[in-house]
Design goal:
Chain A: Its main location: membrane. Chain A: It is a multi-pass membrane protein. The complex is a heterotrimer of chains A (334), B (350) and C (333). With 334 residues, chain A is an all-alpha fold. In chain A, 68% of the residues lie in helices and 1% in strands. Chain A has 14 helices and two strands; from the N terminus they run αααααββααααααααα. Chain B is α/β, with parallel strands linked by helices and 350 residues long. In chain B, strands 6-7-8-3-9-10-12-11 form an eight-stranded mixed beta sheet, with helices on both faces. Chain B has a four-stranded antiparallel beta sheet with strand order 2-1-4-5, with helices on one face. Chain B starts with 13 loop residues before the first strand and ends in a 14-residue tail after the last helix. In chain B, helix 3 (119-130) packs across helix 4 (136-149) and helix 5 (166-178) runs parallel beside helix 6. The longest helix of chain C has 39 residues, at 243-281. Chain C contains 13 helices and no strands. Chain C has 333 residues and is an all-alpha fold. Classes of the chains: A mainly alpha (334), B alpha/beta (350), C mainly alpha (333). Chains A and C meet through helix 1, helix 7, helix 8, helix 12 and helix 13 of A and helix 1, helix 6, helix 7, helix 9 and helix 11 of C.
């Protein structure tokens, strides 16, 4: 739900990108050199994320039933039945299989998050580049507006946008939700990219290119873009984690995906409030766990990448030494 | 200093005696022998300067005396201050000795004071920690007296560090180290971060300290001008060893160790006609070494220098030197043969 | 002097925020009155309501009106039930304030000590556990945590209430003075009422608090690690200051400056989370009202409430700067 973790966990993006981040080759070398706990966390996070991606891609093959299927072989499923051999995670009040909804929920989450991150990058990165490169009035207005959006309670912003879009413009659905989430993250990409553009603009080779009369378009696309784009993966990963939460928040308030369209974890949790009052736990636990575990995994990947990109966050390991016993007192002292 | 010493120490009595101190750092591979068998004594009212190239172990020795070393360091030997061996003290008691018996002045004063704390509170904190029975009024009186003696108007006691210049902050740091009248103060390159005029002020204060207080001062520096102005004795450190020690006048006029001689020749002054430097660079302290550690760079190196440690030889004026040139009579003629001309790699230094 | 300068600096921010809110609410085609009431009223009645609310005038005039209203503390009236936004704030603001303040307290009480402990035990097993806990509290949606707490403490253990701000029989007995229920209950001297209100607060406050806890753990950990490595901390150790005093007086105090700043930024997170928490626990706050007005398509109500939220963010960031100036002498002038 927050836009803060990205800004916080990544000191680099707020300033100029470090030179080590500017070379992908070195980054992968650093990835291999990550050790111990950070490495374990990074690998765990990547593994879990991959698991969810596979769930999403192969949802129809993995899920035992459809996301809105309430009967099989002409027989209606039991209503609010506890976990059993037929329904591992139980069923909902509409007799839908919880496991199937959780699996299809991964698909919805993946679609929305990928779209939202892609939209944010498509909008935020060029705006940041232009604003940072040209400066002037455009830059000032954009900075003010982006700062205002950034200061805004982001969930509310997403709610309002989702509300307006679904109400009047294009109707609900995956794209609407992704757009609502995009509005929250554009300011982040804008800030980071603008900051690194400002510093890269002063770099010698860019100045040289400009001095030789290269048009702005060439300078931006050839030199600046390559340099600036390296800070993006870390924010993108952390934003993806955040976007899952925002999507769930929207769904929980009824402004996300419509229940007939696809399975969505946040919506399921909203429906689970009434069940919780009756002491029914399975309709809340499984979708909630899915959200939590996926967000944790993405956060671990993001922080792991961040540590890899900023080696300064790592610590050199030293071991205490044991002094050897002395050969007699002193080395020839009086 | 205007302050009266609390316990009178006979002038000339040793305040600190470092005996055969070794400090090795663990890295991942072979340990780095940053300090390797150092002996050093400082008497009351005496200033001993510790000089040498960067990376020779000066700072490690200074920190090691206070037990302020990273966890990867191993310490062995004795650091006796007023009869107590700090090297073998449990951490709690060592902590109580810091500030009380032994003070440290750092290289860069700008970042050494807590930015959220008034100057007076820094003094108050030290006094309260080590003299719990002192009343608030007494503590304030002590702080004011200390500041005044360092030329800082007592009216500024309620100001914050950022309101002071670098030179003033260094004076405050010296005051904080001195306010409990410790036996020894270690000043680690106290003027390196300051500009020349401020440097002169600080050197003046240190020289004053030598005349008036009965504490010993270990002045770590690579500035030989400061040594000449503010120190009584000088210890020359090379690769974790003290290769020569003696009165400043004697060492400067008749350096006994080739390294000291080369170091003095490298100093730039007004009458320097051509620049001199010592070719090569100090040895890798984690590599196995034998003989005199300076022999690869020594213009006077003999065959024996490669294989055998020269030990220590007394010099005139109560000093000592570690060099075979002073023990020639002990050597076989074959040992005395000069080493063939060696390629001293200057490129190392780049 | 400092405060005045800071207030003046906040003005353009407020202006931009208000403009963004206004534009957002007006990009939608159609007018707010027919959106909210179109199905229920005749065309004539709608036109009348539009004229009364001023929606028939040019957009720029409405914009000026809106800004003028905000300056004079008038945030407009709702369309559906014709309440003033101020009235909404009086009726429901206390509950949201109670919830957010209590959540912040929970977050501070859990997050700061854990973060500091993790910093001192850097890379040891407890540091890893605390960091994972921090990530988990942030990763778990606040409504999921709320539901789990409801299931555990409300159902299984049956210790705490899970819905509303007070029991239906208790709420009317508390005399209204401050419009903040828990204060009113305390002021009334009726301890059973206070106990009831307090018990209702626990689960929502913990749910929302845990959300911010993760941020605080990370924040205090990173900053304490930095100050513990700082030159002045080493210098204090060299003066023989006790380790406890070094950590508390020097490392923690200095780490607090950035921690306060970023905690202030969390108000946006807190307000967003409050909307969700209020939904989960049926908490009678402004967020709950907002969701209600969204569902009934009441644009002016939404606009008014969002405006208030935006102003709260600005005011809090102002307060944070002032607090920081009190803590850090370098900021003052």
């Amino acid at each position: 739900m927050s836009a803060i973790p990205a800004a916080e966990a990544t000191p680099t993006p707020t300033g100029p990108a470090p030179s080590s981040a500017a070379r992908p080759g070195r980054r992968f070398a650093a990835l291999r050199s990550a050790r111990g706990v950070p490495r374990a966390l990074l690998l765990t996070g990547s593994g879990i994320t991959l698991f969810f991606v596979l769930l999403a891609v192969f949802a129809p093959l993995i899920a035992p039933y459809g996301f809105d299927q309430y009967s099989a072989n002409g027989q209606r499923f039991a209503k609010l039945a506890g976990p059993s051999a037929h329904h591992w995670f139980g069923t909902t009040v509409q007799s839908v299989d919880v496991l199937s909804r959780v699996v299809f929920g991964a698909r919805t989450a993946l679609e929305v998050v990928v779209l939202a991150v892609v939209f944010s990058i498509i909008i935020g990165v060029p705006l940041g580049l232009l604003s940072g490169y040209f400066g002037g009035l455009l830059d000032r207005i954009l900075v003010l507006v982006m700062d205002a959006l950034f200061a805004f309670p982001y969930l509310l912003l997403a709610i309002v946008i989702a509300f307006l879009l679904s109400d009047v413009v294009i109707g609900g659905g995956v794209v609407t939700t992704a757009l609502a989430i995009t509005v929250i993250y554009v300011p982040q990409y804008f800030r980071v990219v603008r900051a690194s553009t400002l510093s890269a603009r002063e770099a010698t080779y860019v100045e040289a290119a400009r001095a030789m009369g290269a048009p702005a378009r060439t300078v931006i696309s050839k030199y600046l873009f390559v340099n600036v784009v390296h800070s993006v993966p870390v924010i993108a990963t952390l934003n993806a984690a955040d976007a899952i939460l925002t999507l769930a928040g929207l769904g929980f308030l009824g402004y996300g995906i419509q229940p007939t369209e696809a399975a969505e974890w946040g919506y399921d949790l909203q429906r689970a409030i009434a069940d919780a009052g009756a002491g029914i736990w399975w309709t809340a636990l499984y979708p909630g766990l899915a959200i939590t575990v996926l967000v944790i995994a993405l956060t671990l990947v993001g922080e792991g990448l961040n540590e890899v990109v900023n080696p300064s966050l790592r610590r050199a390991r030293t071991r205490p030494v044991r002094l050897p016993a002395r050969p007699g007192r002193g080395r020839g002292a009086q | 200093m205007s302050a009266v010493p609390q316990q009178a120490t006979a002038p000339g009595a040793p305040r600190i005696a470092v005996r055969d101190l070794r400090i090795w750092y663990g890295t991942g591979g072979a340990p780095v022998r940053a300090v390797d068998g150092v002996d050093l004594t400082i008497n009351a009212g005496q200033t001993v300067a510790l000089v040498g190239e960067s990376g020779c172990g000066k700072t490690t020795l200074g920190r090691g005396i206070l037990g302020m070393l990273p966890p990867s360091a191993a310490v062995d030997g004795e650091v006796v201050v007023d009869g107590v061996d700090l090297a073998h003290l449990p951490p709690r008691r060592l902590r109580a000795m810091r500030g009380l018996r032994i003070g440290l002045v750092f290289q860069e004063p700008m970042t050494r004071l807590d930015p959220l704390m008034r100057i007076g509170d820094h003094f108050d904190e030290v006094l309260r920690t080590h003299r719990p029975k002192m009343s608030r009024a007494e503590r304030e009186r002590e702080s004011v007296a200390m500041l005044r003696s360092l030329g800082i108007p007592p009216s500024r006691i309620r100001q914050y560090p950022h309101e002071f210049s670098g030179g003033m902050r260094q004076r405050i740091m010296i005051g904080l180290a001195l306010v409990l009248r410790p036996a020894v103060i270690v000043a680690d390159e106290p003027t390196t971060a300051l500009d020349v005029l401020v440097e002169a002020q600080i050197v003046e204060i240190l020289a004053e300290l030598r005349r008036n207080a009965d504490c010993g001062l270990l002045l770590i520096t690579h500035n030989l001008g400061i040594v000449a102005k503010a120190a009584d004795r000088v210890a020359v450190m090379y690769a974790g060893h003290i290769v020569e020690e003696g009165e400043v006048d004697r060492v400067f006029s008749e350096p006994a160790h080739p390294y000291t001689r080369e170091l003095l020749r490298s100093t730039i002054s007004l009458d320097t006609s051509d620049l001199h430097y010592i070719p090569g660079s100090p040895p890798d302290l984690s590599a196995p070494l034998s003989g005199c550690l300076f022999h690869p760079r020594c213009p006077d190196a003999m065959r024996v220098c490669q294989s055998r440690d020269p030990g220590q030889t007394a010099t005139a004026g109560g000093g000592r030197v570690s060099c075979w040139l002073h023990r020639l009579d002990e050597l076989e003629p074959a040992d005395r043969e000069p080493l063939p001309d060696r390629e001293i790699s200057v490129a190392d230094e780049a | 002097m400092f405060i005045l300068a800071r207030v003046i600096l906040a003005i353009p921010m407020v202006f931009i925020l208000l403009t963004v809110v206004f534009l957002l609410m007006r990009v939608a085609p159609g007018d707010p009155v027919s959106a909210a009431l179109g199905a229920r009223l005749s065309a004539g009645q709608l036109a009348q309501r539009r004229a009364a609310a001023g929606f028939d005038r040019p957009l720029i005039v409405q914009y000026g009106d809106y800004l003028g209203g905000v300056v004079t503390g008038n945030f407009g009236r709702t369309i559906t039930d014709n309440r003033s936004i101020t009235q909404v704030l009086v009726d429901n603001g206390g509950a949201t304030l109670t919830l957010t303040v209590a959540a912040l307290l929970v977050a501070l009480i859990i997050g700061l000590p854990l973060g500091m402990w993790a910093a001192r035990r850097r890379d040891k097993w407890d540091d890893v556990v605390i960091r994972l806990f921090g990530i988990a509290t942030f990763a778990a949606p606040v409504f999921f945590v709320g539901l789990l707490l409801q299931l555990l403490f409300g159902k299984t253990l049956d210790w705490l209430p899970t819905s509303g701000a007070a029991s239906p029989i208790v709420a009317p007995t508390v005399p209204e003075k401050t419009h903040i229920l828990i204060l009113d209950a305390a002021l009334s001297g009726d301890w059973s009422a206070f106990d009831d209100v307090f018990r209702h607060l626990i689960l929502p406050a913990v749910s929302l608090g845990l959300l911010v806890t993760g941020v605080l753990i990370r924040l205090s950990r990173v900053n304490v690690i930095q100050t513990l490595r700082s030159d002045y901390v080493e210098a204090a150790r060299a003066r023989g200051i006790r380790e406890g005093a070094v950590v508390l007086r020097h490392a923690l105090r200095n780490a607090m400056v950035p921690v306060i700043t970023v905690t202030g930024l969390q108000v946006a997170l807190l307000l967003g989370g409050a909307v969700l928490t209020e939904q989960t626990f049926n908490w009678p706050g402004v967020g709950n009202q907002l969701v209600g007005y969204l569902n009934s398509r009441d644009y002016t109500a939404v606009q008014g409430i969002i405006t208030v939220f935006a102003l709260v963010v600005v005011v809090v960031s102002l307060l944070i700067d002032i607090i920081n100036a009190l803590v850090d002498p370098r900021i003052r002038y």
